[in-house]
Amino acid sequence: MTCARCFKRGLYLLLVLPWLAFAGEIDEPELFIDNMWVRAVPPVSSTTAGYFTVTNTSEVPVTLLGFTTEIAGAGELHTMAAQEDGTRRMQRLRNVPIPAGETVEFAPGGNHLMLFRLARPLEEGEQVELCLEFDATAPYCLPFEVRR
């Protein structure tokens, strides 16, 4: 092989490789999820709550539809809603919109994940997997740290 042929092949690879890099890219919104944790509860408790922060870095809105996990028999999206008498009451949400370019926090006293019928007591410091299900992406299965 002559140097001229080597140069042509190298030039060809430089032109083609960038296109190959995008061949497997999925056209999905980009979500950044962090600060994932699940509240540690006494062994007699069969429910707990999960928290995290999600940032939608894309230009399209995304909706959180729910979540699944092997450590609970059921899971729901909840929030704490103010009542007319000034108290706050837990309320089930069908979904949670994540607007484009914005961050939505799931934190104590606000939006949270409710885990019902825990399969076993959770140990403080362990990691449990929860799969967050969005309308426009594949599920995000992430480790949540068990904390007090």
Task: Please describe the structure with a list of short key phrases separated by commas or semicolons.
mainly beta, ten-stranded mixed beta sheet, globular, 148 residues
Account of the 3D structure:
The chain is 14% helix and 49% strand. The protein has one helix and ten strands. Strands 1, 2, 3, 4, 5, 6, 7, 8, 9 and 10 form a ten-stranded mixed sheet that branches.
Short précis:
The chain is mainly β and 148 residues long.
Say how many strands there are. 10
Output mean pLDDT. 87
N to C succession of SSEs:
HEEEEEEEEEE
| Low-confidence residue ranges | 11-26
Question: What secondary-structure arrangement, pairings included, does this model have?
Answer:
Blueprint: H1 3-23, E1 31-39, E2 48-56, E3 62-68, E4 72-82, E5 88-93, E6 96-98, E7 103-106, E8 112-118, E9 127-134, E10 140-147
Parallel strand pairs: 1-10
Antiparallel strand pairs: 1-2, 2-7, 2-8, 3-6, 3-9, 4-5, 4-8, 9-10
